[in-house]
Structure formats: structure tokens, C-alpha cells
From TrEMBL:
UniProt-listed InterPro entries: ApeI-like (IPR054545), HotDog_dom_sf (IPR029069)
Domain ApeI dehydratase-like per the UniProt entry, residue ranges: 7-73
Taxonomic source organism: Syntrophobacter fumaroxidans (strain DSM 10017 / MPOB)
Pfam families hit by this protein: ApeI-like
Record's protein name: Conserved hypothetical cytosolic protein
Amino acid sequence: MPPNRSRHMSLEGTFVFDPEDRIYGDHFPGRPVVPGSMIVHAFTLAAAGLEFCSGPCAVRNFRFRRFIEPGEYSYHIEIAGDEMKCTLHDGHSVVATGVLVR
């Protein structure tokens, strides 16, 4: 049975970007910054867990408002039809937004 593409749902949770990950030795030495690709990847993993994307998703309009250090960040996902709107928060500040499309 094909997925119901008209369903609307939202989800909130936490992503943890481990400060001990070896990538931060190179990105960047002395001032670790989470790569944007890791942020997008975290959202694609969430999409797969929600069975939103059974295959590749298109990445659209991801914007990074500031550099973020490794640590814990809250996220909000809003699914409407074929779009998954993604927002990453540091406390009350939005630090990244974007859309995944199936």
C-alpha cells in the first residue's frame, strides 16, 4: 500500500552532535563547528525513521544562521504532503531551517 502523502504531522526532539567525534579535529582546529552536511544528515535520518523518505530526498533551501558548536540541539519537524520542514534550535534561537522533499 503506498504511503499516505496527504498526512500532516509534526515531531520534536533532540539531536546530539558528539564533541568527541574526530571530524571536529579538522572542522575546525581550536574551534569545532558542526558541518552543515551533518545537520542535514541528522534530518534525513529523522525522515527515514518517520518513513517519510524511503529513498533519496531532495534537499531544499537549507539555511544556517550561525555556526554551531558540537552539543545538544532541539529540532522541530513539520510534515505536510511531500515536504518535511526542518528547524534546528539552540534554546529559543533558530540556528538552521530547511526542507526535505520526497
